[in-house]
Specification:
Structural class of chain B: mainly alpha
Shape of chain A: elongated
Number of strands of chain B: 0
Order of helices and strands of chain A: HEHEEHEEHEEHHEHEH
CATH class of chain A: Alpha Beta
CATH topology of chain A: Alpha-Beta Plaits
Number of helices of chain B: 15
Oligomer: heterodimer
Helix content of chain B: over 70%
Largest sheet of chain A: 3 strands, mixed
Number of helices of chain A: 8
Structural class of chain A: alpha+beta
Strand order of the largest sheet of chain A: 8-1-9
Bound molecules: iron/sulfur cluster
Order of helices and strands of chain B: HHHHHHHHHHHHHHH
Distance between the termini of chain A: 46 Å
Shape of chain B: globular
Strand content of chain B: under 5%
Chain lengths: ~290, ~400
């Protein structure tokens, strides 16, 4: 019996229905289809924000007026009305535009956080949200290393808002709306394995053009969205201190310990109680009443 | 038949009598708490009709405020006294602590009902709170799932631990025997669950690694939360029993003052040990992670304030107080410890959370009013129960004085 099975067995015996803690892996199951992802080549992005418009139209969200709103002048984050935003950075190599949205992590913190399974890592890769399950605890927001899930604070019936990689399209193999709308092919939709190959080839063919790093290859255990850049990623708003450990790993040790405590402690405590029992105490258990 | 009707009649008049307020209505506590509770209820109405944004300063950057950081995370740590004392009294049979066990268990139970219950105010979609309970969406891998379940199970255990008091109040002899026989099992379950959810509250923040200031983040947060809940709970028991002793004086028999002092000295000894263990761990991690480099600027000073001013100092005071039987000093230490635990919980969940983000969260006054509403309501219910059930009274004194008559008619 290996470690995992041992924990699973002991867990099932435990009272708190924690049997499945040992299954904390969020990776693909064997034989599952490969995860979809998108490669963003920031050197190709011209900051036209067609993706923002396409996203809003496709998903019934806010559609920005890209001609007139001057939004590129400020550094924005996605919010509860917009699942994706393009930011402008002035760098050592000139203007760079970066589209941001949910990274669709391979082992997402948000799904590990969610106690209702409202956040779901689908078998095809996109991380989606189920309105009928979510209780609005916002633990996904606390846990997501990229601060992606957003909450509707001004509604009595609030939703969590985040990019779902156009699940209605990707679930049948179509491209997300943003990818389709991109006039410069800065976005490529595909399986991570293929995307990695394209990315590596571009770096290999133009070593002077790109930094030799693909953001998302290893970050937080690998993400579905990958980024190429001409300048160090710190310069275009990416955090470099997130590590390569999948975030659910951080709670795994704790969750493994749970069945052990639930099985071991009661026995231990009952033993202590017996040991402290005075010789002449007839009645076991309750005492002192 | 007539007898049954009689009993029903007397039971009815009993409850009617018990519902009547006891004591003066105009007391300083009432004068402050009643307006606050009314305001809190009004605010909650707006919170549920207009969303969390209308009454809180929460934001996309700061999704959790004091309703989580104080009510739930700190409130539950303060309620740790119940599992510590039931361990001492029922598992280790330390009879010395017996006189305060009922009040402590009651306090623990109410704290969970109110403070953990306040979680519902903070949920955006509270009607789905049932989802992780009825099993149509079990997020087994979620720490929050575990904490939520343990809250519920623990409340049940606490209720069972307290149930002998209720049966005595109602004069139900048979039920009392049943309730009594369940106590030890409930205690053992309760302690196991407490270990897990006290540490589980810390584990909630494990995935927030990039957001919490490195002086407060550690993979051992769960252990710190557990150990500190021991001395937080003990300090709360010292604090609370000191106040209760004044307020409910007439309910306690002769000699209760000396006995309470003995108890407090014993508790101080326990707190000293727990704090020493906590400190030892903290120091180990401090050295191992080379945190010296982080002790600088505001955050360094703030960290030292917490771990020196509100952990080390009260630890020394506890040790001194228990050795020299200086109850006054112990009480000061208890208050300092409570502040220290409050700081620690708020630092991790609110203050040092997203410490490097420009828009810092500062609670809205309405959030504070709702928090006070929760605290005051708990005290109201606590007082209501203590004035009616044999909580502070000498154990064994069945029922309230005016219950004697009905007792006789029942037996
Ligand atoms: S980026 Fe955040 S919201 Fe998106 S999958 Fe990863 S953890 Fe979840
Ligand atoms: S807010 Fe909703 S989606 Fe996010 S963790 Fe809570 S229940 Fe899950």
């Amino acid at each position: 019996m290996n470690r995992r099975n041992f924990f699973r067995l002991s867990g099932m015996a435990s009272i708190a229905l924690m049997a499945k803690t040992a299954e904390a892996s969020h990776g693909p199951r064997p034989g599952a289809p490969e995860f979809w992802g998108v490669l963003v080549d920031t050197t190709r992005c011209i900051g036209c924000r067609s993706c923002e418009v396409a996203c809003g139209e496709e998903n019934g969200m806010f559609v920005p007026d890209v001609e007139n709103d001057g939004a590129l002048e400020t550094l924005r984050t996605t919010d509860e009305t917009q699942w994706t935003v393009v930011n402008h950075f002035e760098t050592s190599k000139g203007d760079v535009f970066v589209k941001r949205q949910c990274m669709h992590c391979w082992q997402p913190a948000c799904t590990a956080a969610c106690l209702t399974k409202a956040m779901e890592k689908t078998e095809l890769g996109p991380v989606i949200w189920h309105e009928n399950r979510c209780m609005g605890c916002r633990f996904c927001m606390v846990s997501c290393p990229f601060d992606v899930p957003k909450f509707e604070y001004d509604s009595w019936n609030p939703k969590i808002q985040k990019c779902i990689m156009c699940w209605h399209r990707t679930s049948v193999g179509d491209k997300p709306a943003c990818v389709e709308s991109c006039p410069t092919d800065a976005l490529i939709f595909g399986h991570k394995r293929d995307l990695m190959e394209i990315a590596r080839m571009r770096i290999y063919n133009h070593p002077e053009k790109y930094v030799h790093k693909i953001y998302g290859e290893h970050e937080v255990g690998g993400t579905g969205w990958l980024y190429l850049s001409a300048v160090p990623f710190e310069e275009i708003g990416f955090r470099m201190d997130l590590g390569t450990t999948p975030y659910p790993e951080y709670t795994k040790d704790f969750l493994y310990g749970v069945p052990l405590v639930l099985l071991g402690f009661p026995a231990l405590l009952a033993g202590m109680n017996l040991m402290t029992r005075p010789e002449n105490d007839e009645e076991s258990g309750v005492h002192g009443e | 038949m007539a007898r049954v009707a009689d009993e029903r009649q007397s039971l009815f008049s009993f409850f009617k009598d018990q519902l009547r307020p006891r004591g003066k209505l105009i007391t300083p506590f009432n004068v402050i708490s009643i307006p606050v509770i009314i305001a809190g209820v009004i605010i909650l109405f707006f919170r549920f009709t207009q969303g969390l944004g209308a009454t809180t300063n929460l934001s996309q950057q700061n999704p959790w405020g004091i309703w989580i950081g104080f009510d739930v995370v700190t409130g539950v740590a303060f309620a740790g006294g119940a599992y510590v004392l039931t361990f001492a009294v029922y598992v280790m049979r330390m009879d010395k602590f017996h006189p305060i066990i009922r009040a402590t268990v009651l306090n623990g139970f109410l704290a969970y009902v109110f403070y953990a219950g306040a979680l519902v105010f903070d949920l955006g979609r509270p009607w789905h709170v049932i989802n992780p309970v009825i099993g149509n969406a079990f997020g087994y891998n979620s720490v929050l799932f575990l904490v939520a379940w343990h809250f519920m199970l623990y409340m049940t255990a606490e209720f069972v631990e307290f149930s002998p008091v209720i049966t005595e109040w109602l004069g139900l002899k048979k039920a009392r025997r049943v309730a009594n026989s369940l106590t030890l099992a409930a205690v053992i379950l309760g302690i196991s669950l407490s270990t897990l959810h006290q540490s589980g509250l810390g584990a909630l923040f494990l995935m927030a690694k990039p957001k919490i200031h490195p002086l407060w983040y550690s993979e051992f947060i769960p252990i710190f939360f557990f150990v500190s809940s021991i001395f937080a709970g003990i300090s709360m028991v010292i604090f609370e029993s000191t106040i209760s002793h004044r307020v409910f004086k007439m309910q306690m028999g002769p000699g209760s003052h000396e006995r309470l002092n003995e108890i407090i000295i014993g508790l101080a000894r326990g707190a000293t040990i727990a704090m020493f263990v906590y400190y030892f761990f903290k120091a180990l991690i401090f050295i191992h992670d080379d945190q010296w480099a982080l002790i600088k600027g505001f955050w360094g000073a703030w960290y030292l304030t917490e771990v020196l001013g509100f952990v080390l100092v009260p630890m020394v005071l506890f040790a001194y107080g228990s050795r020299h039987k200086a109850v006054g000093i112990i009480k000061i230490a208890a208050v300092l410890t409570l502040i220290g635990v409050l700081l620690n919980r708020l630092n991790i969940s609110v203050i040092a959370f997203n410490w490097n983000v420009a828009d810092k969260y500062i609670p809205h006054w309405m959030e504070i009013v709702v928090t006070l509403t929760v605290v005051f309501s708990e005290i109201w219910i606590f007082r209501w129960i203590v004035n009616r059930m044999p909580v502070m009274r000498e154990p064994g004194a069945l029922g309230s004085p005016n219950r004697k008559r009905e007792l006789q008619s029942l037996n």
